[in-house]
Amino acid sequence: MTGLHTDEQPDEEPAEHRRFACYLQALETVAEADEADLVAAVLRDQDTTMADSAVGRHLDRRAVDLLTGPAFTAWARAMTGVIADRDFLTLRLREWTLLRTIALGKPWTAEDLTSASDWFQRMATTLQIAASPEALRLLAERGRTRRVRNGASRQLQHRGQFSAHAASGCRTHRRG
After folding, report:
1. What would the pLDDT profile of 55-90 be if each residue is shown by its tens digit?
2. Does 2 have pLDDT greater than 50?
3. Angle, CA 94 vertex, CA 154 and CA 29 arms, to 5°
4. CB atoms within 10 A of CB 42
5. Which segment of 45-49, 50-54, 75-79, 172-176 scores lowest on mean pLDDT?
């Protein structure tokens, strides 16, 4: 019989998979003082896609942990210096910073939200942060995808802030 033999197991896991797992473990346990150096070392890996993925996961994990705390700003500044030549990572960190801005109730613009990535818009509607009702209303109306618009609408309904009509207690259906 010719073709693929699905019952055969590869002899060994690919080297980039082993390095990826090793990087994730190291990034999860790195001391704060050594974090920027370790991120830079990971980004020097010859497999740039794998390195970006490992660092991207790390940025996501750390940003969630630091999002509304005072250490976020210094951390983001340090990471910006290390990832400056990586477009995807730079965008991701910029969008985490925008999520922080919204969570802290600081000023943002409609264009900030509507021009942001699908990932950002989904995070703004699903992340367990105190997203502003204004941001959720904007995403409910102008989010890029139906998933984002529906997620923002659900968040607003959950908070009882979806529309002035709903807030006024008006009923849409009356029995005679």
Report:
1. 999 999 999 999 999 999 999 999 999 999 999 999
2. no
3. 95
4. 23
5. 172-176
Token representation of residue 129: 């942060």
The pair of structure tokens assigned to 145 is 């995808």
Which tokens belong to 148? 């984002």
Q: Give the number of other Cβ atoms within 10 Å of residue 72's Cβ.
A: 19
3-state secondary structure the chain: CCCCCCCCCCCCCCHHHHHHHHHHHHHHHCCHHHHHHHHHHHHCCCCHHHHHHHHHHHHHHHHHHHCCCCHHHHHHHHHHHHHCCCHHHHHHHHHHHHHHHHHCCCCCCHHHHHCCCHHHHHHHHHCCCCCCHHHHHHHHHHCCCHHHHHHHHHHHHHHCCCCHHHHCCCCCCCCC
Whole-number Å distance between alpha carbons of 63 and 69? 10
Give the whole-angstrom CA distance, residue 147 versus residue 44.
36
Return the closest-CA partner of residue 38 out of 53, 50, 24, 18.
Answer: 24
pTM: 0.81
CA 162 – CA 155 distance, rounded (Å): 8
